[in-house]
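May I ask you to review the protein record following this short note?
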Amino acid sequence: MLSPDDFNYALENTRVVLAPARRVDTFGTSLFNYFLVTEAMDTVNLSRVREGHIHAERPQIMTPQNMARLMLEGFGAEGERYAEQISAQAARFAFLKYGFRVSKSDIRSYDVHESLEQVAGKLKDELEVKNEPLTALLTGVDDGWEVCLLKFMIDLINASAPGNLGDFRERGML
């Protein structure tokens, strides 16, 4: 279990070296490939590469009416009034719910006896040649590698949401 300091350290030290060229698909499931390079804290020039897949499920529209119903459980009259105010301004609000799945069985890990910068640089060169639009290369912290991956997923949502919302609006779904 990571301490709060270790958790924050992992967040602060997550870097996207090569971002996916595509965003989360609006109307289907996306399968992103990732390479996460970390450096051993107790050994010089020892890096660990983790490869895996992130399954991004189709974003779901959460209307203000649905959000209001979710928020109302256990609330009284004041909560109902607030939910009614949100519902009355439905055109101003749109929420998307994203779902991600990472399977431990999809993860492959191997050690390389080079520095993090060298390994990440070589991998970046290889991946740029392959030109796979759903592949990402990250660097991060070994003990908090899962936090690094979660941060990447949140950043991916933030980058995808405006385009996803636009797609829903173009089809008259918002």
The beta strands are 15-18, 30-39, 47-56, 60-62, 95-97, 100-101, 108-112, 135-141. Residues 61-97 form one domain. The helical segments are 4-12, 64-72, 77-88, 116-130, 145-170. The chain has two domains: 4-59+101-170, 61-97.
